[in-house]
Design a protein that fits this description.
Elements (H helix, E strand, L loop, with lengths): L3 E6 L6 H14 L2 H6 L7 E6 L5 H10 L6 E5 L16 H6 L2 E6 L2 H6 L4 H14 L3 E6 L3 H5 L3 H12 L7 E9 L13 H18 L1 E10 L7 H5 L6 E4 L6 H12 L2
Parallel strand pairs: 1-2, 1-8, 2-3, 3-4, 4-5, 5-6, 6-7, 7-8
Bound molecules: 2-phosphoglycolic acid.
Length: 264
C-alpha cells in the first residue's frame, strides 16, 4: 500500500521563528504512544511541511531533534533546474537536499500564474529532479474555471502531465506524486465535490499508467482542504492524500486534518 501524504504548503507565510513555534505545538501533539493505543498505524501516512526556504533548516533540525524524521518530512516550494551559477533568487536541488528535503513542489498554479512558469520550464525542473534521483517531485496540475466550464479539464490535465513528464517517456520513474489542484478551488472556501475529485484522480492514475512507467505513484488533492472536509476527500480510493494551504497555517487545524485522515 502506498503511504498517504498529508502536506502543508505554507507559501510565503511565517518567519523562521514562527515556524519553530508552530512545530513546537504540532510535534507535541504527535504522541506516538497515544496513536499506538488507539490502533492507528502512524507510519501509513507521511506528514510533509513545505515552509519558505528560510525556515527549511530550522524545521529539519527540529524534526530530527524530536525523532520524528520517519514520520515528518520536508518539501521545498520550488527548485531551479540548473546545478549552480548566476541565477539570482533561485535555489538548487543540492541546496534543498542539504536542508533535509525529501520532496519538491513543482509547477504550483501560483508559480505558473504569477511567475509565468511555463510547461516547458516545469518539464526541465522535473527532468533535473529525476536526473539527480534523490528528491521526489510533487507535480501540481489543475484547470482554471474557464477550462472546467468548457468541460475540457481532462484534456487540459493530461496535457500538463504529458508535457511535464515528456523527458521520461520509456524511462522508469521510481516515485512520483501528482497534486491535482483545480485552480478554481484554491483558497475558494470549498473544495471539489468528492465524486468529481475521485473521477479526476482515477483518470490521472489511468493516464499515467497507460503512458509512463511509474513504480510508485500517488495522486493527492489540493484546494480548500480543511478539517471539516478531509474525511469526504480521503475516503476516496484514488485520493492518496492532500496538499493544504490556508488550513495548514494553524498547527491545531493541520494536526486535525492529519488525525482525521488516519482513520480511513
Ligand atoms: P488552499 O491552497 O488549501 O489554501 O486552497 C492549496 C494550495 O494552493 O496548495
Amino acid at each position: 500500500m502506498n503511504k498517504k501524504i498529508i502536506a502543508a504548503n505554507f507559501k510565503m507565510n511565517k518567519t523562521h521563528k514562527e515556524i519553530r513555534d508552530y512545530l513546537d505545538i504540532f510535534l507535541k501533539k504527535l504522541d506516538k504512544e497515544d496513536f499506538k493505543n488507539k490502533n492507528l498505524n502512524l507510519l501509513d501516512t507521511e506528514i510533509v511541511f513545505a515552509p519558505p526556504y528560510t525556515s527549511l533548516l530550522e524545521a529539519y533540525n527540529k524534526i530530527r531533534l524530536n525523532y520524528y524524521d520517519d514520520l515528518v518530512r520536508l518539501a521545498s516550494q520550488n527548485i531551479y533546474y540548473e546545478k549552480s551559477g548566476a541565477y539570482t533568487g533561485e535555489i538548487s536541488i543540492e541546496m534543498i537536499k542539504s536542508c533535509g528535503c525529501s520532496y519538491a513542489i513543482i509547477g504550483h498554479s501560483e508559480r505558473r500564474r504569477i511567475f509565468n512558469e511555463t510547461d516547458d520550464l516545469i518539464a526541465k525542473k522535473i527532468s533535473s529532479i529525476f536526473d539527480d534521483g534523490k528528491i521526489i517531485p510533487i507535480l501540481c496540475v489543475g484547470e482554471n474555471l474557464n477550462v472546467r466550464k468548457e468541460q475540457k479539464e481532462y484534456d487540459f490535465v493530461s496535457n500538463q502531465l504529458n508535457t511535464a513528464l515528456n523527458s521520461l517517456k520509456n524511462k522508469k520513474i521510481p516515485s512520483l506524486i501528482v497534486a491535482y489542484e483545480p485552480i478554481w478551488a484554491i483558497g475558494a472556501g470549498a473544495p471539489i465535490g468528492p465524486e468529481d475529485g475521485e473521477k479526476m484522480h482515477a483518470f490521472i492514475y489511468k493516464y499515467l499508467n497507460d503512458n509512463f512507467i511509474i513504480e510508485e505513484l500517488r495522486v493527492i488533492y489540493g484546494g480548500s482542504v480543511t478539517q471539516s472536509n478531509i474525511k469526504m476527500l480521503i475516503t476516496n480510493k484514488h485520493i492518496d492524500g492532500v496538499l493544504v494551504g490556508g488550513a495548514s497555517l494553524d498547527p491545531s487545524s493541520f494536526y486535525n486534518i492529519y488525525k482525521f485522515s488516519l482513520q480511513y
